[in-house]
Specification:
Largest sheet: 5 strands, mixed, barrel
Order of helices and strands: HHHEEEEE
Oligomer: single chain
Strand order of the largest sheet: 1-2-3-5-4
């Protein structure tokens, strides 16, 4: 195999590593593919097979060692923007009709909601501000 063929083989290897990346969604295959592209560049420069393999290993290992932990950390984080009922939890509301353990009405985020007190013995009168701690169906649970 001459030097001009080596870079082609590295690119074929990079493409072959790209297939399981797409099929399995495992980013490690993409990092190995980038390592193969780096080895193809080294081969195109006319450097030997040993330098090509070293380039492949260094780039691949560096990407896996640096990028993978960052990607894992980001994938474990919950979304920063709460939506739906999650966005209503923790917000303040104004009592429109007396709220106790059996029910009542509040104004929450510009809408009128049925509500009940978290503590069944506690009641909130019209005009008081309450905090929404949970949403159960179409009922806000407040304190």
């Amino acid at each position: 195999m001459n030097d001009i063929d080596a870079w082609v083989w590295w690119l074929v290897g990079a493409a072959a590593l790209g297939i399981p990346l797409v099929v399995t969604a495992m980013p490690e295959f993409g990092m190995l593919a980038v390592g193969a592209v780096a080895a193809a560049v080294v081969a195109a420069l006319g450097l030997g097979v040993v330098v090509q393999v070293i380039a492949f290993l260094v780039v691949s290992v560096a990407l896996i060692a640096v990028v993978r932990p960052i990607a894992n950390r980001h994938s474990r984080q919950s979304p920063r923007l709460a939506t739906g009922i999650e966005a209503l939890k923790g917000r303040q509301a104004v009592v429109l009709e007396r709220v106790d353990g059996s029910g009542g009405r509040i104004k929450l985020a510009g809408e009128i909601w049925s509500a009940r007190s978290l503590d069944a013995d506690r009641a909130y009168e019209a005009g008081q501000e309450v905090d929404v701690v949970d949403i159960e169906g179409a009922t806000a649970v407040v304190i």
